[in-house]
Amino acid sequence: QVQFVESGGGLVQPGGSLRVSCVASGFTFRFTGMSWYRQGPGKERDWVATIDPAGGGKMYVDSVKGRFTISRDNVKNMVYLEMNSLNSEDTAVYYCSRSIGMTRSRPADAWGQGTLVTVSS
After folding, report:
1. How far is CA 54 from CA 10, 19, 50, 58, in A?
2. What is the DSSP string of 17-46?
3. What is the largest CA-CA distance in the chain?
4. Alpha-carbon distance 27 to 40, whole Å?
5. 37 vs 1, 32, 52, 61, CA distance in Å?
6. Distance of CA 60 to the CA centre of its chain
7. Exposure string over 29-45, b if 16+ CB within 10 A, otherwise e
8. pLDDT in tens, 8-24
9. Which of 18, 57, 62, 111 has the least C-beta neighbours within 10 A?
10. What are 37-69's pLDDT values in tens digits?
């Protein structure tokens, strides 16, 4: 059974930084691309970033390029999203997911519970 458990969210001031984490299980993690998505208040869930299985290939939505970094640990089955220069538009629940190759698409897995990031002074 594919499962994702996200953590690390919290309240951060504008301009601050935060790292969210996700531990995945139920599939061969080291052979699988991974992505982060987010859902802001009153908004749809949107793709944020994808990393390839080895960790060398990464892609980001334009709004986070240069501020967010996706990374992974294939020993711990974990994927991370380091977020810098946060602003109010980054306030959202963050979710991790498997990816279908290096794309914005994902398999129809159940979502985890997500982790809430609130950017506010």
Report:
1. 29, 20, 12, 10
2. -EEEEEEEESS-GGGS-EEEEEE-TTS-EE
3. 41
4. 28
5. 20, 16, 15, 10
6. 10
7. beebbbbbbbbeeeeeb
8. 999 999 999 999 999 99
9. 62
10. 999 999 999 999 999 999 999 999 999 999 999
Q: Which two tokens stand for residue 33?
A: 């691309």
Amino acid type, 54 = A
Give CA–CA dist 93/70, Å, rounded: 16
pLDDT tens per residue across span 92-116: 999 999 999 888 989 999 999 999 9
Q: Tokens standing for 60? A: 């980001």
Q: How many CB atoms lie within 10 A of CB 49?
A: 24
Counting Cβ atoms within 10 Å, is residue 81 exposed (0-12), middle (13-18) or buried (19+)? buried
